Amino acid sequence: METPLVSRDYILHRIRTALGRGAGQAVADPPPARIRVPQVSMELRVASMLERVRALAGEAVASSDPCAVVANLIAGKTALASNAPYLAECGICGLPGVRSGITGREELREICATVDIGITSADYALADTGTLVLLSSPREARMISLLPPAHIAVVPRERILTGLDELFALLPNPAEASSSMVLITGPSRTADIEQILVRGVHGPGQLTVIVV
Amino acid sequence: MRTQPIDQVAAGLPAETKTAVYEGSKIGHEKRTKLLFDHYGDPNRLRTLAGEIKQHVVENLDTYLPAVEARLVANGAKVHWAATAEAACEAVYSILKARGAKKLVKAKTMVSEEIELADYLEKRGIEALETDLGEFIVQLDHDHPSHIIKPIIHKNRRQIAELFEKSGLGAYDDEPGMITQRARQFLRHKYLEADAGLTGANFVVAESGRLVIVTNEGNSRFCLAATRCHIALVGIEKILPRDRDLALFLNLLARSGTAQQLTVYNEFILGPRAAGQPDGPDEMHVIFVDNGRTDVLASDCREILRCIRCGACLNTCPVYRKIGGHSFPWVYSGPIGAILTPQFMGVQHEPALPFASSLCGACGEVCPVKIDIPKILLELRSDVKKADAREHKNRLEKLGFRAFAWMMTHPRIFEMAGRIGRSMGWPSGNKGPMGAWLSERDLPPLPAHSFRDLWRRR
Amino acid sequence: MTLTSGRAPVTGKRVQLMATCLCDAFHDDVAAATVEVLEHLGCEVAFPEGQTCCGQPAFNGGDWDSSRRVVRHTVRTFSGDDPVVVPSGSCAAMLFHGAALEFEHEPDLGAVQGLGRRTWELGDYIVNGLGVRSWPGRLDAAIALHRSCHTRGTGSSEAVALLLASIDGVRLVEIGEAEQCCGFGGTFSVGFPHISAAMGDLKLDHVRAVRPDLLVSGDTGCLMHLSGLAAREGIKLRTMHFAQVLRDALRKRG
Lengths: 212, 458, 254
Prior knowledge:
The complex is a heterotrimer of chains A (212), B (458) and C (254). Helix content of chain A is 29%, strand content 21%. By secondary structure, chain A is α/β, with parallel strands linked by helices. In chain C, the strands form two sheets. A four-stranded parallel sheet of chain C has the order 2-1-3-4, sandwiched between helices. A four-stranded parallel sheet of chain C has the order 6-5-7-8, sandwiched between helices.
């Protein structure tokens, strides 16, 4: 077996040979990146966010009382809320049936595998595609928006950006904020079988976005 | 010219396979076209720009790769390099062995298909379970995927339901929702039991070292969230210069591949989990795989390395729609397969492939990174014939083309041949180069005159 | 593919007809109709007698040495500055796309590109070269137009559709999956006869579904392939080159 270093140098040598040049030549500038950030009013952003989530077969509501909406949705079911401070501020963590404050890996997995609903906030949302942007952190575990069959995201409206381009304009290097960022656009889905759309393959089949 | 093996494979395909492939690819193409043109006045400008960016990366790969490597290492990932398929499999295996890992869940990656990783690991006592629904079904059936992004486009629900019943996943039920539920339940435990998760990467960003992994089902996210060790198999050409380029590429990938504005899950990974994150892998390994790519880079058609594996050229290709992926000899099928396969395996390995196209140009019109596929097919044809000449193969055909050139540079001979041809009529029977052609077609009687006869009489 | 180099604008009305080997030897009426159509437009048509073939079969077959020999012959045959008009999208594209590719590293690339710049597919020439946008005469028929693949990226298909639709009595009917190839592809249909026939049958299904009186195309190759398949399967299908349609319409001028 080749040692890693030999393999690395071998591949790089082959690349340079193929390109016909020596090591360490400066790279030319790439063509300009294409970023277009349109001016869209907050009202239109909210409307687009709701419309897009619904178009993807998610539920979407705008509400000034997210706690009441979540309470209604839970209606006797069990839920796990993330440690996002915003959820606690809204009072969602105190609702009956809602657990929160989990930090241990094993405990998190166990609860996520059994509850009916995962509740998270979102660091951003993208209006033109109905997308949630979640940065993984001690406050937002990945499992909560992934394992339970239903996902509720509570998003303050000021976090709604126009779209992907604005996200990259705002966070040219969003990685700085977290080792893992995810864009979630609608419920988990597949069309592998006869191109028939089925929701809830590995992630949640139900998605509810509450814009506050 | 002989009838080619691909043609015979295609002729023998079961009717239901043909229907499944045709319907699946046609729908994919139609939705893609509508979405692209509904949202962008001129999607071709986006395709041009995306092509230029990827070409820039390919032309500067010698600088970009070490830059990415440095970023990845700084982000806490371990970087490995594999020149060949064997080396790539070995790299995965040694990472797993070092951890004492016995169970691997894997998301869909074309590189792992290239290097036949699952087989390699199974032989060494490691369970390597596919988690993408289509790939899972293919694995269960000991079959092969037949489309870059729709692995089971060739199967219908009845076949899948029978497979599930046979495999002990529940009594026959061919409702796609039920099939999916059963796979979900089965795989759920597998994720949670697994020691490691393996993914590919759709893009790797040079300036940040970020891996971008795209799925609709959420399986790659699950592989990462549930296991302690993440292994990513990445082709060396997968680099984008900047994070901001993702705005363009994620849009084009989703629209071209599955006709969505965005794929459901776009995962941006920058390293193992940070302190305090309650889930995610403790270890992250990135294996850069060559496996023939530097040969492509050295060839005349390095622009193929722009390919982002969206599958749009398969969906639009009239040949793919009629014959499906299994008629192609390697993991890549359709127009992109017809150019990748000979490039990766050598032009003489599958010499018929570049010819399995009517050169209609549909693939070139949809490619999101504007690879001129028809042009490359033509160049590969010329390469095949040059190799034939060197190896003294297909001499009869070569003689035929020479005779053609001789006749067509001698107008009198051409005229005489036409006269003889018209007096003899169309050849009958299945013999000769036109035999197969005429075996399926009836042509009207030949005219008495050539046009030039008429012209002279004016 | 798109037209790569700037096309020479049309100034005079002298044209050189490239009849194509197929029309010259086996479809004399298509070439004859092309002449009538061009002369109706006031063109002075020349037919360089040395012409044979554009070289495409060998080009597509990968034998570029043989193909280049034929192309060189064609370049010599169609000398001068007059536009070359071809009643075939495929042969025209060979001269402005294909030949440029196989001559990329040849010393006489310039001469080949020069011919490419003044080569026109017939419909493209009439509409975009001469600026003619409607056609006189009459033809009572529902016409399905098969857009041949080699006219992708050129103005030909739209031009032909425009002319046909302008004829009194013509009703254009749109066929399903219009952008899909009919499966001819020259040598492709010989090397891969079953795939080719399967593609052709799909095209025929779409054509029959809209019940046209005529299937019309700008490429005789596609028409031969489709009518041949139809005849074998006992399907009644009248096919015509659009030059023949234009000519027949002229003959019924009131």
